[in-house]
Amino acid sequence: MPSPMHKHEARTDHKVEFIPVKILRQDSPNDKAYWQEFKVKYQRNMNIITVLREIQKNPQTVGGETIRPVVWDSGCLEEVCGACSMNINGQARQACSTLVDCLELPIVLEPFKKFPCTRDLIVDRSRMFEALKKVKGWIPVDGTYDLGPGPKMPEPIRAIMYEISKCMTCGCCLEVCPNVNQENDFIGAAAIAQTRLFNSHPTGAINAGERLDAISGEGGITGCGNAQNCVAACPRDVPLTDSIAEVNKAVSKRTIQKIFGVTN
């Protein structure tokens, strides 16, 4: 599988005065999507958020029509929150970390297709958050008083947990997954990786069986077709396929244990 562009950028450094931009827009969740074209004055090292802000300041199409400003979602502007996820030139990426100088022209912006579109480039990622609730993506501790230092963890486990914890729930892994669509409730790679993360924690392991049971049924880990698109698209290099394999082994082990009645 070829390396995704966000990991090995190829600079193009456009020698143009204006950047052509095509945006797929939608006025409301029930309205039909439509295309509009814009041109933005080129600046070296500008990212996609900058492009959208320039359009917001001067909301006119290439034909001179004044329109309502394009809307999108963003937060941290440093590839941490995952809010600005969208399809950029056909790739699931972050608008804040994608540079115009690294893209072919025209720039084509579309909302994610695996999530309901709320408006323009904003989508409803509730599917991901519901999946995290399904796998109990948290450590069940009482934070109302000082519990003292946490349990020590072996360095190899801590290192893996750190890599998984970099997930920002951006949705890129679900967007590129052929097994995620409106016809099923497959929870996707992110939630499966979070199952591994919280089951690896000494305190989180208290609920390990509940998490494994939650993803062993319909919409769970059996919905993964091992396409491995997720790990290639992940902007944070989260070990998604490794985590899916590890959780799959844990689910199989628990299934056998349940047959013989030796589970907790």
Task: Report on the architecture of this protein.
By secondary structure, the protein is of the alpha+beta class. It folds into two domains: 18-123, Roll (Ubiquitin-like (UB roll)), CATH 3.10.20; 126-259, Alpha-helical ferredoxin (Fumarate Reductase Iron-sulfur Protein, Chain B, domain 2, Orthogonal Bundle), CATH 1.10.1060. It is 30% helix and 12% strand. The chain has eight helices and seven strands; from the N terminus they run ββαβββββααααααα. It has helices spanning 48-57, 126-134, 155-165, 172-176, 189-200, 208-214, 229-233, 240-259, and strands at residues 18-25, 34-41, 85-88, 91-94, 107-110, 117-119, 122-123. It has a five-stranded mixed sheet. It has a two-stranded antiparallel ribbon with strand order 6-7. Helix 5 (189-200) packs across helix 8. The two termini are 41 Å apart.
SSE layout and pairing:
Elements: E1 18-25, E2 34-41, H1 48-57, E3 85-88, E4 91-94, E5 107-110, E6 117-119, E7 122-123, H2 126-134, H3 155-165, H4 172-176, H5 189-200, H6 208-214, H7 229-233, H8 240-259
Parallel strand pairs: 1-5
Antiparallel strand pairs: 1-2, 3-4, 3-5, 6-7
Helix pairs in contact: 3-5, 5-8
